[in-house]
Write a structure and sequence with these properties.
Rossmann fold; single chain; five-stranded parallel β-sheet; 14 helices; alpha/beta; 330 residues
Length: 330
């Protein structure tokens, strides 16, 4: 089976570590796979890549294209010859993008609608990251729920004292970790900041991570006492799964598949969008005072497990039997 991954290449790391991790997990299972990266930002920037991809496909033969994110799906649809097309929707490409105050922007609502039309009538198979995205699709759309996996060889428990020595964090401090760019409106950093300030505990520090190398995050997850996620919306946030693979306590708004992923794991807390509630849950997580068993909880989300499910999806699509409406079994 020959597969082409189409994804953004605009970040400092080039291909997203999440996309690359999925691709490499498929390679380890025997799939022949190449990467094609989109260069340029915004709708116009993406569409300028159509001639590039068309030329690439003329000289390279693939059975299936797997596009990651809605705009990559549009570029792939307008470029493909007779390849089957699978599109992974990540969250805001179906849910829309939040602007000021968490209100969805008109442009993102329109684009989300276009994605739903294409998913229903053009794409061979759509993949969504959480069940909360299901209700947004047009009836009879071929979609399957399949979250991204987490690489257990990259993210694993390390003794907290060792992790803190590595990244120079004092042992006396309690660390609340926020892993995202605080300037991204949808991440709702204002809520995180207000909740932290309400705690007002001297030795509790809020550490915001922006543009940290993906492979270095393991040290921060293991050094921290709790991960805080306050997003307005998510698909299937990888920081939650990575933190759980390191047995870190979690406080998160009820977005994406966070409630499903964390399940009944002790030391993980779902909160509302009220800063008093977030602060209260942070206090509970800090009082928990030990590592969780999150790694055991998410064993079914290991990259190798997800890879086998993804291969099954590819096989069904190539046979002309797209899957509709539920998670895929191995």
């Amino acid at each position: 089976m020959k597969v082409l991954f189409v994804s953004s290449g605009n970040s400092e790391a080039g291909i997203s570590p999440i996309v690359r991790s999925q691709g490499e997990s498929l390679k380890r299972k025997g799939i022949y796979l190449d990467y094609f990266t989109i260069l340029g930002k915004g709708t116009k920037g993406y569409l300028k890549n159509i001639p590039r991809l068309r030329n690439f496909l003329r000289t390279n033969n693939y059975e299936l294209i797997h596009a990651h994110y809605g705009l990559c799906g549009v570029v792939s649809e307008l470029s493909r010859k007779n390849e089957k097309l699978v599109v992974s929707f990540m969250g805001d490409d179906i849910l829309s993008i939040a602007g000021s105050g968490g209100i969805f922007t008109k442009k993102s609502v329109v684009f989300a609608f276009i994605n739903k039309i294409l998913a229903r009538f053009k794409y061979d198979q759509s993949i969504i990251k959480s069940r909360k995205m299901e209700s947004r699709f047009i009836k009879n759309t071929n979609f399957v729920v399949l979250p991204n996996g987490v690489d257990f060889e990259i993210f694993f428990p390390i003794r907290q004292s060792i992790a803190r020595n590595k990244i120079h964090i004092k042992r006396s401090e309690k660390i609340v970790l926020f892993v995202s760019d605080p300037n991204r409106v949808e991440k709702n950093f204002g809520l995180a900041k207000r909740a932290y300030e309400l705690l007002n505990i001297e030795n509790v520090k809020l550490k915001v991570l922006k543009n940290v190398d993906h492979n270095q995050l393991i040290w921060y997850y293991n050094a921290a006492d709790v991960l805080m996620l306050t997003s307005f919306y998510e698909g299937s946030p990888n920081v939650i799964k990575e933190a759980m693979a390191c047995n870190l306590s979690i406080v998160s708004t009820d977005v994406g598949d966070v409630r499903e992923v964390t399940g009944k794991t002790e030391g993980t807390y779902i909160t509302s969008f009220e800063h008093e509630d977030v602060a209260e849950k942070l206090q509970l997580a800090l009082n928990f005072g030990k590592r969780t068993n999150g790694r055991k909880t998410i064993e079914g989300l290991r990259t190798d497990v997800i890879a086998m499910k993804l291969i099954r999806i590819y096989e069904e699509v190539l046979k002309g039997n797209p899957i509709r409406g539920d998670a895929i079994d191995e």
